[in-house]
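Final report, Chapter 2: Outcomes

The project's central promise was a pipeline that accepts a single protein chain and returns its three-dimensional structure in a standardized token representation, suitable for archiving and comparison. That pipeline is now operational. To close this chapter, we reproduce one record exactly as it appears in the project archive, with the input sequence first and the structure output second.
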Amino acid sequence: MSFVVSTTKDDAALLRVRLAAGIHLRGLEERAAQVVLVSPEGNVPLNSMAAAILALCDGSRDRAQVVGEVLQKSGNRARSADIVEFLDAAVARGWIQQA
């Protein structure tokens, strides 16, 4: 017998996020002009918002916490829908994992 577990958008918001294995950010610690996502497939230059979002994906926060912190740090200039869309895209690209 098997059970199917479905997740809703509310459930997804509670999943902790972290960078996937083999993925790291370069330039974040050095306050470099350009932060780069380094992956086995190649390097991806990030804009400041993408870098801020991915820097928070360390496994200690869930998606809702990441969204909240980015909104707070941006002085609410960012839109939560844009942050969620970026997180979804990052999962689809294999940059972050949810657990």
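Archive annotation: The longest strand covers residues 35-39.
This record, like all others produced under the grant, will remain available to the consortium after the project formally closes.
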